[in-house]
Specification:
The chain has about 450 residues and is α/β, with parallel strands linked by helices. The chain contains 18 helices and 13 strands. The strands form three sheets. The chain has a five-stranded parallel beta sheet, sandwiched between helices. The longest helix has 23 residues. The chain binds iron/sulfur cluster.
Length: about 450
């Protein structure tokens, strides 16, 4: 399908072809689903809301509930305040959420709806003990990662309070990762005996079991009370500059909770940094079970070394995820040749360049606000041995016959990814399994008959 992508690259300033990102409200909707009893609400037309729900449903293979202000021509001209007012009344009456998390769309942003004022005007229609919060998510700025970050920051701005009594907890902001990753982070925190609030938490929401009964609000998710109480924590750990840091800064500003940003714990080095940080909080030795997992990972890194060493890799996707993957493939002896994200921002290039310099790697092309069309052109000019990213890269992988590992968001054409982590030592073990399998599959598929080995 992409066989005709030309090798010659042209400088494009105003055109993206297959951008390595999707639109802001999708991230905002995902963040809201990580709050217990929350109904995400899209302030715009029905089409946007349907698209956002569909993308999340296709990735998580779960029905994603969200409401919409259902803009038609009238609201598009005169503003959507009246629609919002009706929506809030109807939603609390019909769907009974604990909280409504409103995000905007390109349409409501373009006509200039003042959501802050509109939300303050609907407060009389909000039942006691229930909440309506909002964030602005114009999709012509940033990406779904920006929308995710904006939404969790807004939850903090609206809800978190410093009551003056410390709760002894650590707020852990996991960033835009899957429910399997959130479960893994909670497991690590539990093994290390750290009282925590993971926020948001989509485990138990977007990986819930089939029970035969429909639950509008599954059992998972950070509770509103936990978000309020996050203002009394002793520390906030933001795991990811792009998707988690803004909310941690807001908590520090609003509630004086000290914060620290770490990278998303993908790969051995980033996980080491997280474990070291957690150990410094507990003043205890790292539990043996965590050391054991690390030892297993190191063993596997050595076992698989001959298949990874010197291999060239192209990585694309969300900035916090791509940064972790880049560092990890280097620790496996691979060379990241092309590293891109669709999310704009200079920080991405700075972070990747710092990793490359630290490891003495030169000649890597790094780009933010980039697209898959250009990545394909780069690959045509300099082929790679492995491609890592979301489902959208499958066309490049097919056109160039590159072993392909699906990591990130969205994964629309495979199953079960939402259950398994890519974070922590266990997540790194899983990544090695996925990467080595596709490389070995290609060797099996393309080698000469006499080289076709049972044991590899
Ligand atoms: S109009 Fe904007 S918010 Fe709606 S789907 Fe398109 S990019 Fe997303």
């Amino acid at each position: 399908m992409l066989d005709l992508t030309p090798r010659e690259t042209l400088e494009r300033s105003a055109l993206r072809i297959n951008p390595a990102k999707t639109c802001q409200p999708i991230g905002a909707m995902y963040a809201a689903l990580g709050v217990h009893g929350c109904l995400p609400h899209s302030h715009g037309s029905q089409g946007c809301c349907s698209y956002h729900r569909m993308q999340l449903t296709r990735h998580y293979k779960e029905p994603v509930m969200a409401s919409t202000s259902s803009f038609t021509e009238g609201a598009s001209v005169f503003g959507g305040g009246a629609n919002m007012k009706t929506a809030v009344k109807n939603i609390f009456e019909l769907y009974e959420p604990e909280i409504i998390a409103v995000h905007t769309t390109c349409l409501s942003e373009t006509i200039g709806d003042d959501l802050k004022t509109i939300i303050s005007q609907v407060q009389p229609d909000v039942p006691a003990g229930k909440y309506v919060v909002h964030t602005n998510t114009p999709s012509y700025v940033g990406s779904h990662v920006t929308g995710f970050s904006n939404m969790i920051k807004s939850f903090v701005s609206y809800l978190s309070e410093n009551s003056g009594h410390k709760n002894g907890k650590v707020n852990v902001l996991p960033g835009f990762v899957d429910p399997g990753d959130m479960r893994e982070l909670k497991r690590i925190l539990s093994v290390m005996e750290i009282k925590n609030t993971l926020f948001p938490d989509t485990s138990g929401v977007l990986d819930s079991p089939m029970t035969g009964a429909f639950e509008m609000y599954p059992s998972g998710g950070t509770t509103v009370n936990e978000i309020i109480d996050a203002g009394n924590a002793k520390l906030t750990l933001a795991l990811g500059t792009f998707s988690a840091e803004a909310a941690a800064i807001e908590l520090e500003k609003k509630c004086k909770v000290p914060m620290k940003t770490l990278s998303t714990p993908i790969g051995i080095e980033a996980t080491d940094r997280l474990i070291t940080e957690l150990a410094s909080i507990t003043y205890k030795a790292v539990p043996y079970s965590i050391e054991e997992e690390r030892g297993q990972l190191v063993d596997l890194m050595l076992d698989s070394q001959s298949y990874f060493n010197g291999k060239k890799v192209a990585i694309y996707g969300d900035p916090d995820i791509v940064t972790g993957l880049t560092e990890f493939v280097i620790s496996l002896g691979m060379i990241p040749k092309f590293v891109i994200t669709g999310t704009p921002g200079d920080t991405f290039k700075r972070q990747i360049d710092a990793i490359l310099i630290k490891n003495g790697i030169e000649g890597t092309k790094v780009k933010a606000a980039a697209d898959l069309f250009e990545l394909h052109q780069w690959i045509k000019n300099e082929p790679v041995d492995l491609l890592i990213g979301n489902t959208h890269g499958k066309y490049i992988a097919r056109a160039e016959d590159i072993p392909f590992v699906r990591v990130g968001f969205p994964i629309l054409d495979r199953f079960a990814h939402q259950y398994f982590p890519i974070v922590g030592y266990r997540g790194a073990i899983r990544l090695i399994e996925m990467m080595s399998n596709v490389i070995l599959d290609k060797i099996d598929r393309t080698c000469l008959e006499e080289d076709f080995e049972l044991v590899m």
